[in-house]
Amino acid sequence: MATPPAHPAATGPVGRRSLLWGASSVLIWATGCSNGTKAPSSTGTSGTTGPQTASTTAAPSTSATSTAAPTSSTATSAPPSATLPATAPWRPGAGEIEPAAKRSAVTLIEALGSWRAGQAGERRAAARAAALGIPAPLAGQLASQAGSLLGPGDEARLQVIDAQYGGLLTDTASVLVVCRQWSRNGAGAVIDGGTTVDVRLSRTGSGWSVTALHPAVSEPAAPSPTASTRAVLARSAIELPPAAAADIRSGTVHDSVLQAMLRLADTYRMSVSVVRSGHPLDVFGTSRPSDHPVGRAFDVWRINGHPVVDPATPRALITAFMRAAAAAGSYNVGGPVLLTGGVTSNQFFSDDTHHDHVHIGFPS
């Protein structure tokens, strides 16, 4: 494991990255994402509550039970008989370190975030969770924490875009489930939205079990977006899921991050997973704050169409991207490969948490 940077928010057992949606038959209690603007596809490649998850508000929320609307949503008129988009279950692929943890987290989110007409509401969501093998009291608790996943729609479909680690320790984990969700109300209006959920898990004798949910909470878009904000949102080479796009629109992401995204997009097509919201507030397993909630970091799970976690992805592509991120001003670049030759001795780091994505952080 790499020696973390000297910056106080850049240390910890799992590295810098740990700051802060039909259902499967896998039993979560026992056993443990595509760009948000593209058609859904299955793109997986590969009982305590930990630190809270970052919202998109300037002061991160301390509540795990949010009733906010989906992080990013657009209502469109449609006849009541219109069919919501088809979705596919996300599955971990080759290269995953703890695939059972991700499977447990994703299966629950898929179950909570998708329902048929007439099956909306927290009570029905709790029943869907219990049907996965989660004990009834915990199923009810998790449904109460689902926030915007349950939404206002009479019917909904959810597509997981990606699942990455927010932290991975021996017996506990944070899996960040990045989602897009379509819902329809009784009048036939279709809402295209989505969120990111920080799913907390504990290892049991039979696998990984979900213990808590921390969905992202949306902040309104800034009334006067900056030129950098407009450029990032317009750049096709920067693929943003709903929660990350909302973070950018909110105006709470530092210009250092936006400029680095634009510079990297000159050479690479990158799929961003997390910016501010839906990420743990602290380095997982510690009390040290992370750069994500304050808008000074972003994570990339796919580069030029190649998932970072996939063993078939050329290491040279990942290392070149990491070095380009450092050249774009990042003081803190983490990923699956430990690099040398940074401006500082610990500008680069690697650990199990960053096996599935590249973290890019900035000091200001």
Overview features:
364 residues; disordered N terminus; seven-stranded mixed beta sheet; six-stranded antiparallel beta sheet; alpha+beta; globular; 8 helices
Layout of strands and helices, then pairs:
Layout: H1 28-31, E1 74-76, H2 99-113, H3 122-130, H4 136-144, E2 155-168, E3 172-184, E4 190-193, E5 196-204, E6 207-215, H5 227-234, E7 238-239, H6 242-250, H7 255-265, E8 270-272, E9 297-303, E10 306-307, H8 315-327, E11 332-334, E12 348-349, E13 358-361
Parallel strand pairs: 7-8, 11-12
Antiparallel strand pairs: 1-4, 2-3, 3-4, 3-5, 5-6, 8-9, 9-10, 9-13, 11-13
Helix pairs in contact: 2-3, 3-4, 5-7
Q: Explain this structure to me?
A:
The protein is α+β, with helices and mostly antiparallel strands and 364 residues long. Helix content is 21%, strand content 21%. The protein has 8 helices and 13 strands. Strands 7, 8, 9, 10, 11, 12 and 13 form a 7-stranded mixed beta sheet that branches. Strands 1, 2, 3, 4, 5 and 6 form a 6-stranded antiparallel beta sheet that branches. Helix 2 packs antiparallel against helix 3 and helix 5 (227-234) packs parallel to helix 7. The model is unreliable at 1-50 and 56-72 (pLDDT under 50).
Quick overview of this protein structure:
By secondary structure, the protein is of the alpha+beta class.
| Quaternary status | single chain
Query: What portion of the residues fall into strands of 2 or more residues?
Result: 15-25%
Measured as a percent range, the helix fraction is 10-25%
State the end-to-end distance: 25 Å
The overall average pLDDT, rounded, is: 83
- The coarse silhouette is globular
Rg, alpha carbons: 19 Å
Largest sheet: 7 strands, mixed
- What are the low-pLDDT stretches, counting only 5+ consecutive residues below 50? 1-50, 56-72
Order of helices and strands: HEHHHEEEEEHEHHEEEHEEE
Class by SSE composition:
alpha+beta
Task: Note the total helix count.
Answer: 8
Tell me the number of strands: 13
